Amino acid sequence: MEPKVKRTKTPMQALNSLMNLCARSEKCSSDALRLMRGWGVADADAQRVLQRLIAERFIDDSRYTSAFVREKINLSGWGVYKITAALRRKGIDSATIAAAIAENGSVDMTERLTELLRRKMRTTKSKSAADLRQKLLRYAAGQGYDFSTARTCVEQLVKCDDEDMY
């Protein structure tokens, strides 16, 4: 399927547009290539534009990855698996992803997940404690947390909730 061309741009116009975009927010190389494809820039020209953007430090995939990981952990509450999958879809290599996650490893994922689950519990309707556990585990998996961490947090929360009921 041919990508829809919004408005064609010359390589120079694409370079200027991407410089403006990258000055405002972080972009990775796959974002830039996707935009240029949409603008109808030829692949060879797009590669030259991308190389110039990288040379002039407008685009840096490791810097982008670090910012993405920081944002998704701190603001969105995503787990490592969801972050890794999103970055792989953007074409970021595994070593860069691992370095960015290790750099932001000081954040305690258990505490973060417990808070997310506590908020989710307030709005979750369930018939029993087992049903609530299942829904919370499914939610934690969807947020990208590993099963053992999710199970520990869910058991702690649902157990505390059961004790509060009596």
Structure description:
The structure is a single chain. By secondary structure, the protein is an all-alpha fold. The chain has 3 domains: 11-55; 61-103, Arc Repressor Mutant, subunit A (Orthogonal Bundle); 109-165. It is 73% helix and 0% strand. The chain is built from 9 helices and no strands. The model has no long low-confidence stretch (mean pLDDT 88).
Please describe the topology of this protein.
Layout: H1 11-24, H2 29-38, H3 43-55, H4 61-76, H5 80-89, H6 94-103, H7 109-123, H8 129-142, H9 147-165
Principal-axis shape equals elongated
Number of helices: 9
Could you give the count of β-strands? Answer: 0
Largest sheet: none
First-to-last CA distance = 60 Å
Parts with pLDDT < 50 across at least 5 consecutive residues: none
Percent range of helical residues = over 70%
Strand and helix order: HHHHHHHHH
Assign the structural class, choosing from mainly alpha, mainly beta, alpha/beta, alpha+beta, or little secondary structure: mainly alpha
Rg, nearest Å: 21 Å
Mean pLDDT: 88
Question: What proportion of the residues form beta strands (DSSP E)?
Answer: under 5%
Count of distinct structural domains: 3
